[in-house]
């Protein structure tokens, strides 16, 4: 496996829109890219992914007591993803693929 590249050298990015559920009880979203977790914020943002091959992207919410709203998908091309957790802080979430950016 190649060593990670310095920030700003990855040309392929995905746009991820993390929607805040109605009830969060202090939960914060976490984004996982190929199994590595990164803290995130509610709203839209871009994430660097590997330049070739497919990448597994996951999102879940965590509030110090439990995880909820977990969803993951594998992306091959540059895409727009939208994550929605359930209305209540229990159960799985949905990660939907939007339009391609190319």
UniProtKB/TrEMBL annotation:
Q: What is this protein called?
A: Uncharacterized protein
Q: Which organism is it from?
A: Curtobacterium citri
């Amino acid at each position: 496996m190649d060593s990670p590249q310095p920030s700003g050298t990855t040309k392929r990015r995905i746009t991820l829109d993390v929607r805040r559920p109605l009830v969060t009880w202090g939960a914060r979203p976490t984004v996982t890219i190929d199994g590595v977790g990164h803290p995130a914020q509610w709203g839209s943002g871009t994430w660097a992914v590997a330049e070739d091959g497919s990448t597994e992207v996951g999102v879940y919410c965590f509030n110090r007591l439990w995880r909820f709203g977990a969803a993951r998908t594998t992306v091959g091309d540059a895409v727009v993803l939208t994550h929605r957790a359930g209305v209540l802080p229990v159960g799985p979430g949905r990660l939907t693929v939007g339009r391609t950016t190319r």
